[in-house]
Amino acid sequence: MTGSRFRIEERSGIVAVYDTAHAEYQDTPGCHADYPWTVCSWHGAYDEKAGHWNVDQRWIDKARAACDLLNTLSAKLPIKMNEDRAREILKNYIQPDGGLYCLGHYMAWTPGDKTITLDCEFDAGELEAIAWWIRNTSNTGGEGRKPAAEKEA
Asked: Which alpha helices (DSSP H) does 9-56 contain, by range?
């Protein structure tokens, strides 16, 4: 599957399923079971006749099945909160200074505050967006995350 999160790596007597979304993931020249992004792996046996390691086809098939299942399941997971999603959900509440305010659907938060006042019914998506906004914009005046160079300046 092109563009999928999980992929198969088969080299040197091992077949492994890698999670390409893992924070430490990197494309490597070898295949190892102990990389932090390895989800599962199957080891082969040394073939004396051939003079190299081989992985049984049944283990390769199991790795492919596991990879396909993981990609199918991960495609159905909800998208994690990010700035664009938070802005879309909170668009009616974001103030010019980056604070959150609404009198009818009561919420009040000023950038820099550690707490927000809420007095209404909010769904899980709204609560997640509110939490994301407070964690990620409290020191930027609601302008979103600043690149590292701007933070240091």
From this structure: none
